[in-house]
Amino acid sequence: MLAVLLGGCATGGIQNTDALQQAMDANHKAAVSVLKRANEEDLPYRIEDGLTRSAFSADDLSLLAPADIDSWDKILGALDSYCGALSCLTSPKASGDFSTACEGLGSKVGALAKAGGIKTGTKVSAAETAVTELGSLLMRYKGDSDARLVAEKADPSFQKVVGSLIEAFGFEGSPPAPSPHGILATYELDFSVGTAMEAKKFKGGEIEGFAAMGDDQKRASIRALLSWLKVKQDHDEFVASVRTLVTALDKARLAHAALASRDAANASAAFAQLQAEMKNVQAIYQQFTKG
Predict the structure, then answer these.
(1) Dihedrals φ, ψ of 94, to 5°?
(2) Per-residue pLDDT tens for 252-262?
(3) Percent helix, strand, coil in the chain (nearest 5)?
């Protein structure tokens, strides 16, 4: 059983803050890999869409501009630093490590302030503001040794940051459900428009009108079917990865809220769920970064 107070040197506090730090590090790596994959998956449909336009620029090539991904990277990096700071509070050398982590967060927030707005991530600007608030709060409490107290004070900002990222991905509520806005909704729209002909031609995985075709047409249709099945598989894997990542982010915000509370049983359950989700998140990162 976890200690009732989750900060200080209580064993439960150490386990929980370490688990939160490890989880946010995994979420950070997976999120950036998913965002980069979003651009790769969406590129063919952007190119096809460009054929109908009178002008085309680099901004039309991707779902997310490099600056957008960089902004996400900085926000998630700031959350890493915050969770690292909480973990430091429960370590034997708390004061020095916590101060260093706070300075690291301050540096990331300073760089983040210079980043441009997010075009498709409608809630990311709100996350930037909340990260700044989180950094300011940490600097105020950097002399405190009670991780639970710091987490309690920081929880509204932490919830706002993670909630904004979840909404930017295109989900709402807890547990998160898909919404008509955000990155996934835009990707799905591009995919459905760009593959409408293939989806109709190979509905149910079958080749329409196959019996009436000549041999050459049958061979060409079989090759086209194989190509479509690969595209569909990539699509399904990407959508599943986004859903998994959003679930993990939601588990992280629930775990942080539990850390900020005095309910040991609730905290124990929340962190067990968070840790169980981490294998799935790590698999996303490995899948999207393999050579």
Answers:
(1) -60, -50
(2) 999 999 988 87
(3) 75, 0, 25
